[in-house]
Design goal:
single chain, about 675 residues, mainly alpha, 31 helices
Length: about 675
């Protein structure tokens, strides 16, 4: 018995049931089983012969064999381990010192740390609760407005569902059948743009109304340099870099000076400070070097095509392109990120579980990636390089002992987690690994950081031994890159394994953290998987009753343009974000719109990224914004929900503004995935 009215009844009942507090996954399965039984029912048939039971088994097996979902528990485990490594307190202090001269410095620091921690963990509730404990009371004690403090925490904590590595994007990739690497690349620029808008709002509000964010007293943001550093400054006119270099060449400059531990200052301490001071230079060189390698070397076209006999793959290689990329005749929908069907038909269909086939090996750039040197690349590259060099020279020239101490704090608290996050994203975006393999790297790196935060010496010596073993194993294969990779893997693996085996037998704290992280990972993963099972069953029965075709006919009957369809779809998702969480929206309602994307010639990557931005509203819109309740649970008693809601509302409007920019300029979303992976 199939009836479109039954399908619409299903859709209405699921919304009501979720709003009443019933578990989403089991409500989806329950409604799917009941209405599916009605759809397959036939007179005279025994109840156990109904085909709904076979459909349930098939849907469950299909979800459990989905390779995309393997990355979910690994990324979640990475987030929980990092959260319990107790790194965020020191990070908050060091970032606060770095931005101490900005208006509303505490709020700016809170937003940046929330965003950074959200990127690393991807767990909104954990970030909001943890930052609520760390940052809420210091801001209120400093005289900050409650709305400013609560808004910075809740808005910053939600960025983790958009900026990769995002669990939400993994879920969308599985639902829509899209490549997770393209979605990660597409979400990078919108995520950072949204963060920039949040910062503009905080700083602008504080500049217009300084009373909401009073300046901190000097004793709250100043850090004293060691006595021997001050001695160098007195001898070198406050040029601490020149003083360190001079001290390394002439140790007599520090005669009579003592280190903080009371021992005479030696070459080791001087070298340690010089290496810390050189970190900005090293990071800048690494950034520009990576960009040059990827654009000019890896994507460089071949100088001369080889004969087809010697290189069979040459037939698949596109001829070298000039600096300017030829453009096809665009149709009207292409401004919304449309991929032409004629172009799509010549390409093999890409799976959602990993990077495209042509991106799985760095040694084999193909026609879609080779020779893509953008126009004016060299002008932009050398211009930015010159500008960065000028900034570094000014920074090092003006660096004093206090700034050096702040830099060392940043190096210890921010750089390790930043490097891990960049590595996890880079190996995905450059096609070195799949999302699942990258998640495994992230989980291993999180364990390494947790171990080094507790036992730095033991981890360092174990890492050195592991690096030696890795280089020795990679030596027969030769090649500088091979030795670097093998040494790095050996250092991380041995540096993680040996200290953790020792610590788990001696440290109850680490053992407890590991058990709790594993339990929470299993709980979150089970929730996601059962949501997928329930959603797959629900959507199948919904389509069986004709509900999907009814909605498609209704939408097509409205005669909307591609821009109009995007507006209507995103508006519906925005309003659904009020009563529902992002998980329900992604697994229940987004699949309704996905079949319509091809009709309106809308790029599903663009649509998914806009959904991810839009779903910030699921955490920032009253009256059921979950981030508000997370914060209320740890905020002081005098902070009310109405004050938290008032602080969140401007950020919800900023989300809408970001969506408008994405409508107007789809290239902000699609430029990076098209550049990395082609159309």
């Amino acid at each position: 018995m199939s009836d479109p009215s039954l399908g619409l009844t299903m859709l209405g009942l699921i919304v009501v049931a979720i709003m009443m507090g019933f578990p989403t996954a089991f409500t989806l399965m329950g409604l799917g089983m009941v209405f599916g039984y009605l759809a397959f029912w036939a007179p005279g048939q025994h109840w156990y012969d109904n085909q709904i039971f076979a459909l349930m088994v098939q849907r469950t097996y299909g979800i459990m064999t989905n390779d995309v979902l393997l990355s979910v528990p690994l990324f979640v485990f990475m987030g929980y381990i990092i959260e319990r490594a107790a790194l965020i307190d020191r990070m908050f202090f060091s970032v606060q010192l770095a931005f101490r001269r900005l208006p509303a410095s505490l709020a700016v620091t809170t937003l940046l740390v929330c965003a950074f921690w959200g990127i690393a963990s991807g767990i909104v509730g954990a970030v909001v609760i943890l930052m609520g404990v760390i940052a809420m009371r210091p801001m209120l004690k400093a005289g900050y407005d409650v709305r400013l403090a609560s808004g910075a925490i809740t808005a910053g904590g939600t960025l983790g569902i958009l900026i990769p590595p995002s669990v939400m994007l993994i879920v969308y990739a599985a639902v829509a059948g899209q490549s997770i690497v393209k979605l990660y690349a597409a979400a990078m620029l919108p995520g950072f743009f949204l963060t920039f808008l949040y910062l503009v709002y905080i700083i602008g509000w504080a500049m217009l109304n300084p009373k909401i964010a009073p300046k901190l007293p000097p004793d709250k943001y100043r850090i004293a340099a060691p006595e021997w550093i001050q001695q160098l400054e007195r001898g070198r006119s406050r040029r601490v870099i020149g003083g360190l270099i001079a001290a390394a060449l002439r140790p007599s400059l520090l005669r009579g000076a003592d280190a903080p531990d009371g021992q005479p200052v030696g070459y080791g301490l001087i070298l340690k400070n010089l290496l810390a001071a050189a970190v900005p230079l090293v990071l800048t060189l690494a950034t520009f070097g990576t960009a040059w390698w990827y654009v000019v070397i890896y994507n460089a076209p071949a100088a001369a095509p080889a004969p087809p006999v010697s290189v069979p793959r040459i037939a698949a290689v596109a001829p070298p392109q000039t600096a300017t990329r030829p453009t096809a005749e665009p149709e009207a929908p292409q401004e919304l990120g449309v991929a032409e069907s004629e172009v799509k038909s010549d390409e093999p269909e890409r799976s959602a579980e990993g990077p495209p086939e042509e991106m799985t090996s760095l040694a084999e750039p193909t026609a879609s990636t080779a020779g893509k040197i953008p126009a004016h690349f060299y002008q932009w590259f050398w211009g930015l390089a010159a500008f960065s060099t000028l900034l570094l020279l000014i920074y090092f020239w003006r660096m004093d002992g206090e700034q050096l101490e702040i830099l060392k704090e940043l190096v210890v608290s921010v750089v390790p987690l930043g490097v891990l996050t960049v590595v996890v994203l880079a190996v995905i975006l450059f096609g070195i690994t799949t999302a699942t393999e990258s998640a495994a790297i992230g989980a291993l790196g999180a364990l390494y950081l947790a171990g080094i935060s507790k036992y730095p010496r033991r981890v360092c010596w174990s890492s050195l031994a592991g690096a030696i073993v890795g280089v020795a194993l990679g030596w027969p294969r030769g090649g500088l890159m091979t030795l670097f990779v093998s040494g790095s893997l050996g250092a991380v693996f041995v540096g993680t394994l040996v200290p953790w085996i020792w610590a788990l037998r001696t440290s109850r704290e680490l053992l407890s953290n590991l058990k709790e992280s594993t339990f929470l990972t299993a709980k979150t993963t089970a929730m996601v998987c059962w949501l997928f099972v329930g959603s797959a069953l629900f959507s199948g029965v919904f389509a069986l009753h004709g509900g999907q075709s009814l909605i498609e006919r209704w939408v097509r009957g409205m005669d909307l343009s591609p821009l109009g369809f995007l507006f209507v779809a995103q508006a519906i998702i925005f309003f659904l974000g009020w009563p529902l969480e992002w998980t329900e929206i992604i697994v229940i309602f987004v699949p309704i719109f996905i079949p319509l994307l091809s009709h309106y010639q809308i790029n599903p990557v663009l649509f998914g990224t806009m959904v991810a931005v839009n779903l910030q509203a699921a955490f920032l819109s009253p009256p059921v914004a979950m981030s508000a309740f997370y914060l209320k649970g740890v905020a002081p008693k005098h902070v009310t929900l109405n004050q938290i809601f008032a602080g969140m509302m401007p950020y919800m409007l900023i989300v809408i503004l970001a969506l408008v920019f994405m409508y107007i300029w789809p290239g902000m979303t699609l430029w990076l995935p098209e550049f990395l992976y082609g159309n």
